[in-house]
Amino acid sequence: MRSFQRFAWGVLAYNLAVVAWGAFVRATGSGAGCGSHWPLCNGEVVPRGHTVETAIEFTHRATSGLALLLVVGLVVWAVRAFPRGHAARAGAFATAALIVVEALVGAGLVLFGWVAKDASAARGWVVAIHLTNTFLLLGAIALTGAFAEAPRGLAIRGRGPLAAVFVLGLAATILAGATGAIAALGDTLFPAVSFAEGLRQDLERGGHVLLRLRVLHPFAAIGAAIAVSACARAALRARPGPRVRRRAVALLVLVGVELVAGAANVGLLAPVPLQLVHLLVADLVWILLVLLGAATFAPAARAPEETRLRGVAVQHG
């Protein structure tokens, strides 16, 4: 189902753009551009004559709405194209559930006032949850595309140690992403004029909770890089085929790029464009890790001789 796969990859690419724009909304403090109204924007379906912040926030809502419609199309296509029990159907249904959660979390941020300059601890936790759900959503879309050619999904039975390595890698990547979301929020709300001042903010006794949590991100990122590298190495040992090799190498390259981008983000005091690049590379690392797992745990194809013997047995049965 090449056409279905291409559509799934298109939905994935579009959602990456929506996620990046959502980060731009947060980084520019435009989350309150539509006031406390949701789904309306300042009480209007299409706002007119408002501020730049309103335009930025309304654009994010409009593009998010289109993302929801694309996911509906993905589900309809999966139901029509694949039989019951097919893994692509399960991936599409999971995608639909996660994008609904994504919309509800976004609505909660607006309705509870966890936007713009709000520096509550609750906002920090919700932002971390938002990032986690975003990762799960992107992973579900990626698996939907991958499962189009793998009806049985994943074959994990009997491969417990390898599965444990991947679970650790996925969990470490989510933790790094969640702490990164909190760190980015701290950079937005408490900008520093120098690296030394930023470090002082992080270590100051009695400092804001978002600043105290911000210092955790570099350690979580390094831990995730180690865990993801272990996943790539384990995948190559378990299944050294061309697809696994390509994805493992690409994943390791992206991990290196992400570490460099993170260091530059800290050193340059988190400029908005670099924040967006940092987030985009983190999303790509997550997606590639998920796709590497899909390739590593894909059910083995039957050998031609086995298939021929099965056919003979059926004919003489």
Automatic annotation (TrEMBL):
Pfam families named among the record's database cross-references: COX15-CtaA
Which key words tag this protein in UniProt?
Cell membrane, Disulfide bond, Heme biosynthesis, Iron, Membrane, Metal-binding, Oxidoreductase, Transmembrane, Transmembrane helix
What sections of the protein cross the membrane?
7-24, 62-79, 91-115, 127-150, 162-185, 215-236, 248-270, 276-300
Location(s), subcellular: Membrane
What topology does it adopt in the membrane?
Answer: Multi-pass membrane protein
Q: Does the keyword Ribosomal protein apply?
A: no
**Principal place of residence:** membrane
Top-level taxon of origin? Bacteria
| Entry keyword annotation includes Transmembrane | yes
Q: In which pathway does it act?
A: Porphyrin-containing compound metabolism
The UniProt entry, under InterPro entries, shows: COX15/CtaA_fam, COX15/CtaA_HemeA_synthase
In Swiss-Prot or TrEMBL terms, this protein is called: Cytochrome oxidase assembly protein
